[in-house]
Amino acid sequence: MASRRILVIEDDAAIRQGIVDALTFHSFAATQAADGTAGLQAALVGDCDLILLDLILPGMLGLDILKQVREAHPTLPVIILTAKGEEQDRVTGLRLGADDYVVKPFSIKELIARIDAVLRRSPERPSDITRLSIQDATIDLSRSELRFIDGSRCELSEREVELLGYLVRNRGRAISSEELLSRVWRLEPRGIDTRTIDMHIARLREKLRDNAAQPQIILTVRGKGYMFA
């Protein structure tokens, strides 16, 4: 099994090298960036399974990096590294989609435990699927349309493309309405009515000709959310 790849974005050379050495010792493949600009470039490539992100960086702040990473790679796990007095930054980071945080100074044992926990609960990294055949139709996300074997076509709205694309890339996994609000709508789900998700799912099922009473394409998983089958 290939080593999980961790990108470390940290400007303090001693801390950064200590983390890289510890990750290597624990069988991770570690890459590193010493400033915000280089860190963002490495993060946007997306060639890693998790990012360790310091918040105070030269060139670009960690929170700005987090925003752009979330737009480009909605499911890529990010753990932020913060100083003890940066509570508000930690809260902001979590609201922007960080998966966890570790407060400096931290023990390597704690860091590895948090990395393992985040990787266990994170979805598989999505592939760039743009076309998929299902039953009697072809989903073409690049053209924002559905094409049926009877020759008919159905257009998808921009939001429907994003929602369907997220479900397709995470097919086989039940996705909560809160996760969809966070990853697709990019909203803080706390206090937001999730019925908008239900309405969009209903419209997608109708366009996919998926029987709402007994759906076969977009399933409802009781107590968990929706799953593309």
Topology of this protein?
Blueprint: E1 5-9, H1 13-25, E2 29-33, H2 36-45, E3 50-54, H3 62-72, E4 78-83, H4 87-95, E5 100-104, H5 108-121, E6 131-134, E7 137-140, E8 145-148, E9 153-155, H6 158-169, H7 177-183, H8 195-208, E10 218-221, E11 225-228
Parallel strand pairs: 1-2, 1-3, 3-4, 4-5
Antiparallel strand pairs: 6-7, 7-8, 8-9, 10-11
Helix pairs in contact: 2-3
**Distance separating the two termini:** 26 Å
What summary fits the major beta sheet?
A: 5 strands, parallel
Supply the CATH class of the largest domain: Alpha Beta
Q: Kindly provide the radius of gyration, computed on alpha-carbon positions and rounded to a whole number of angstroms.
A: 20 Å
Q: Structural class, from helix and strand content? A: alpha/beta
Strand content: 15-25%
What is the N-to-C succession of helices and strands?
EHEHEHEHEHEEEEHHHEE
Note the quaternary state here. single chain
Q: Helix coverage percent of residues?
A: 25-40%
Q: Output the number of helix runs.
A: 8
What would CATH call the homologous superfamily of the largest domain?
A: Response regulator
Strands, total number: 11
Mean pLDDT across residues: 87
Order of strands side by side in the largest beta sheet?
A: 2-1-3-4-5
CATH architectural label of the largest domain = 3-Layer(aba) Sandwich
What number of domains? Answer: 2
CATH topology of the largest domain: Rossmann fold
| Morphology | elongated
Low-confidence stretches: none
